[in-house]
Amino acid sequence: MDTRRMTQNGCFPIILRLTHFRKTTSIKTGHYVPEEYWDNHRCKVKRNFPDVDSVHLLNTLL
């Protein structure tokens, strides 16, 4: 979750950070999550996130 960029509705984008030969790039996933539904320890969306049909499918996608 990219906490540097908050949207107007209070959500943060989920990004993938890739490093190759010491160069870093960020790839947007197109999914946005409020901070209270993000698990920093496991880097996953929490089970009680109401905005998607299947949280398990979203975490598998990530």
Contiguous helical run count: 1
Number of separate strands: 4
Distance between the termini: 11 Å
Structural class: mainly beta
**What is the helical fraction, as a range of percent?**
10-25%
Encode the helix/strand succession as letters. EEEEH
Description:
- It comes from Croceitalea dokdonensis DOKDO 023.
- This protein has one domain.
- The chain is built from 1 helix and 4 strands, in the order E-E-E-E-H.
- It has a two-stranded antiparallel ribbon with strand order 1-2.
- A hairpin with a 2-residue loop joins strand 1 and strand 2.
- The protein starts with 10 loop residues before the first strand and ends with a helix.
- The mean pLDDT is 90.
In short:
The protein has one helix at residues 55-61, and strands at 11-20, 23-34, 38-39, 44-45. By secondary structure, the protein is mainly beta.
Question: What descriptive keywords fit this protein?
Answer:
62 residues, mainly beta, two-stranded antiparallel sheet, two-stranded antiparallel ribbon, 4 strands
Task: Give the secondary structure arrangement, pairings included.
Elements lengths: L10 E10 L2 E12 L3 E2 L4 E2 L9 H7 L1
Antiparallel strand pairs: 1-2, 3-4
Protein name: Integrase family protein
Organism: Croceitalea dokdonensis DOKDO 023
InterPro entries: Arm-DNA-bind_5
